[in-house]
Amino acid sequence: MKDRAQLVTTDPATPADRLRTAVTRLRPQLFLLISVGTVLMALVYVAIARWRVPFLRGLLAVPLLGIAILSLGHYTSFYPWISKHYFNEYEFYHYYIGAKYAPEIGYTKLYEATIIADEETKRLYSANSIRDLATGRYLGVPNVLARKDEIKARFSEERWAEFVKDIEFFKRNLGGGRWSRILRDKGYNATPIWGLTGGLISNAVSTDNVKALRAVALLDPALILLALLAAFWAFGHRAAFFAAAFFGINFLTMQSPTMKAAFLRTDWIMLTIVGAALIKKGWYKTAGGVMAYAGLARIFPVIFAFGIGARALVELARTRRIPWKHFQFFAAYAIVGGLLVGASVLYAGGLHQWREFFDKISYHNNDISTWRVGFRYVFLGTFDLVPRGVDWWAYKAQLQEFHAQWAHVWWGIQAIVLLASVYLARYLDDGEAVLFSFVPVFFLVAPTHYYYMMLVIPALFFAVRIDSPYRAAGLIYLILAGNVGQSYNYVGWRFPLAFDMSCALLGMVLYMMLITWIEGRLRRPAPDQ
Q1: Per residue in 421-453, pLDDT tens?
Q2: Fewer CB within 10 Å: C terminus or N terminus of the chain?
Q3: In sequence order, which residues have a C-beta less than 8 Å from that of residue 374 and are 6 or more positions away?
Q4: Both 345 and 211 in a single domain?
Q5: For the stretch 95-130, what's the b/e string if a residue is b when 16 or more beta carbons lie within 10 angstroms of its beta carbon?
Q6: What is the mean pLDDT of the chain?
Q7: CB atoms < 10 A from the CB of 400, how many?
Q8: What is 420-434 written as a DSSP string?
Q9: What's the pLDDT tens digit per position in 150-159?
Q10: What are the CA-CA distances from residue 96 to residues 89, 99, 196, 405 (Å)?
């Protein structure tokens, strides 16, 4: 009988896998083709609106759909030198194992338990240290192995045997090179609420069943399709097709395999889009529940409810009451959020997972990394603290000291942006206000670059009124910024790239604010829909 761990890499590729491999080899050419095609289509729609020839819009739907499908194919292309199939073993290890064994290993013992299991099954890990997920520093492997009994005591005999079997599966499929890097990464970082979902799935799907594991990798593409269908339903076919076209050429996501073929990594983005669509259609209670899960699955997406909150404040100031629809949204948000938190506590058997999660996320948020993008890196990089071409690690302490010294300026800027965003929300309807919430997200947080798959949200903001030259210009700007990013050597991500891409996105969010104000001045504020 074949070794179960060999099935992922030796069984024949399906026709879909072979097509995906062919698409992958053409990625640079497809990136350029989709980019040019999307830009041209945006310009044509503006021209049609200007010259008043609306009958052409229906004809253009076909080529636009073709570009959207090609772009989604470009997105789902994976790296054949990593995996023959659409299955990201590296990411699956972190989130499958992290969620399945959260009761035993929490957020800090994943790598320690793994190296012990590796040692018990013919050691493959070749490095001398692993990352300490509690501190971010490194632990010597001999020191960890000396505490083997302490770590294994967290497991029952049956659970440890299952854990060892799962670790053996992943290490054999990853191979020596990637396996020897994996325990120096930054671990499993989803919230206990995502851990509840991921734990239920991972405990139900065994590593003995490779086909079922690959099916789990298809949950994200299914959610992407759901979000685009929701956008089609609420905002129209052009908005959905343009969003899909941009999705597959988003530079900050396409240059990393992290979010692709992985274990439910896009749920928070896609459900935020679904929430915006539900609001657009007047389903406020359902939207509140959906967006509660989206927000609590990663915490910072909670900020996408900012736009609705701002609209409620505007109406409160204008009429001395909060609209019933907004009350319904936030009531559903609070109830569903409370139920999810309660369920996660019951599942974990206490609050300890939440405490570990917030300790770890606090460490990540206070850290400075070349992989992160956001206004924080514009703030740090503007003052030339890190000369180009110089290893930024030597300046890390200086950057942190600078940020602490100028914290009052930092928070002053945040306050101004938030107040301005509340004011601008009066010019938007509630559905667009959710999409506009990317503005405070960009200013308040600086996640790792691959989390900027969420750029599909401002892309949709621009696409909902693609006839407008202002909105079309915003979408084109996003596409061109990604093409400029392509000129960098991805393998050499350094502080200058984080700074430059942060500056490019700063320009975009300021433009979002500007055109919202211009459009608002050209027409009356959005009605109480």
Answers
A1: 999 999 999 999 999 999 999 999 988 888 999
A2: N
A3: 442, 443, 445, 446, 447, 502, 505
A4: no
A5: bbbbbbbbbbbbbbbbbbbbbbbbeeeeebbeeebb
A6: 86
A7: 14
A8: HHHHHGGGS-HHHHH
A9: 999 999 999 9
A10: 10, 6, 12, 41
What pTM did the predictor assign?
Answer: 0.90
203 and 129 belong to one structural domain: yes
Domain count, the chain: 2
**Secondary structure (H, E, C), 259-314:** CCCCCCCCHHHHHHHHHHHHHHCCCHHHHHHHHHHHHHCCCHHHHHHHHHHHHHHH
Give the closest residue to 183 by CA, choosing from 237, 242, 233, 119: 119
Residues in the chain: 529
Q: What is the 3-state secondary structure (H, E, C) of 229-252?
A: HHHHHHHCHHHHHHHHHHHCCCHH
**395 shares a domain with 270:** yes
**Where is the domain boundary, 196, 217, 238?**
217
Tokens of 353: 């997972």
Please state, in angstroms and rounded to a whole number, the distance separating the CA atoms of residues 332 and 401.
Answer: 42
Task: Judge whether 437 and 304 are in contact, CB under 8 Å.
Answer: yes
Question: Token pair of 447, please?
Answer: 């996640």
Q: What is the pLDDT, as a whole number, of residue 2?
A: 37
Tell me if 68 sits within 8 A of 246, measured CB to CB. Answer: no
Angle in degrees, 0-180, between the axes of helices 352-366 and 324-348, rounded to the nearest 10: 110
Contact residues for 310 (Cβ-Cβ < 8 A; gap 6+): 421, 422, 425, 433
pLDDT tier at 247 (50, 70, 90 boundaries)? Answer: very high
Give residue 3's identity as a one-letter amino acid code: D
pLDDT for the residue numbered 527: 47
Assign residue 147 a region (left: φ > 0; alpha: ψ between -120 and 50; beta: otherwise). Answer: alpha
Min mean pLDDT across 94-98, 100-104, 362-366, 470-474 is at: 362-366
Instruction: Specify if 8 maps to a domain.
Output: no
Domain assignment present for residue 374? The answer is yes
Residues 206 and 252 in one domain: no
Task: Name residue, tokens 């019951």.
Answer: 346
Residues 289 and 213 in one domain: no
* Closest C-alpha to 123, from 104, 106, 144: 144
Q: Does one domain contain both 181 and 240?
A: no
Range of the domain at 195: 89-217
60-93: burial string, b at 16+ Cβ within 10 Å, e else:
eeeebeebbebbbebbbbbebebbbbbbbbbbbb
- pLDDT over threshold 70, residue 495: no
**Residues 213 and 267 grouped into a single domain:** no
- Asked if residue 465 and residue 438 are part of one domain, the reply reads yes
The residue out of 155, 187, 217 marking a domain boundary is: 217
